[in-house]
Amino acid sequence: MNPAFSRFGRERLAVLRRLNTPRKVQDFLDYELSYNDGKPNTCLSPLEVLKRGKAHCIEGAMFAAAAFLFHGRRSLLLDLRANPRDDDHVIAPFLEKGRWGAVAQSHFCGLRYREPVHASFGELARSYFEFYYNGAGEKTLREFSGPLGTAALKPDWLYSEKNVFFVSRELDARRHYRLIGHLQEKDLRRADSLLLEAELLGGSRVPLARRRPRPYPELKRKR
Fold this sequence. Notes:
Layout lengths: L8 H10 L3 H10 L2 E2 L10 H7 L1 E2 L1 H14 L5 E7 L6 E8 L2 E5 L10 E5 L2 H6 L14 E5 L2 E2 L15 H9 L2 E3 L3 H4 L7 H7 L16 H4 L4
Parallel strand pairs: 1-2
Antiparallel strand pairs: 3-4, 3-7, 3-8, 4-5, 5-6, 7-9
């Protein structure tokens, strides 16, 4: 075990110990943590996320990377860069059977988990494109970074009581790759406002577990 985890204490290590698959990590983000509205702006370490019970996107991705590290998986972060009219997003990629998936925290349902079916980081990043839009419905995802291995970070990214903004700076400094050409940007269709309304489910500070999901049979509609 990474020596840095000795700072977590028995109770919080027990939480990490049960999060032994990416799906369990995503479920923890969705159903057991509140969304951190970041006011004032924060970049909480994974230990602080556990202490406070909340996380926004980079905090959720770092927590997932910490859980992966704890269980001996590759621990990576990937930056999704938007145009100037939107915010960036950070995900925690994972590899299973030669394919990439991701764990992520977001207000928007479509910017969270990805199944490990993607052949490359570029393909994984593109899977977020249709769901990545701003308040005006403009599709804003433009670039993705090369992966940042957490082994390259100072160890206190895991446990610092202070904000770890150095992680976001490291991600921002990495080489980024374009997803679409400049000529394509003007022809993009705006996201439907109904999609925005649907996607915000669970995007409040309240964990999804406190909501009342309906059984799948009740959701069936004729196509």
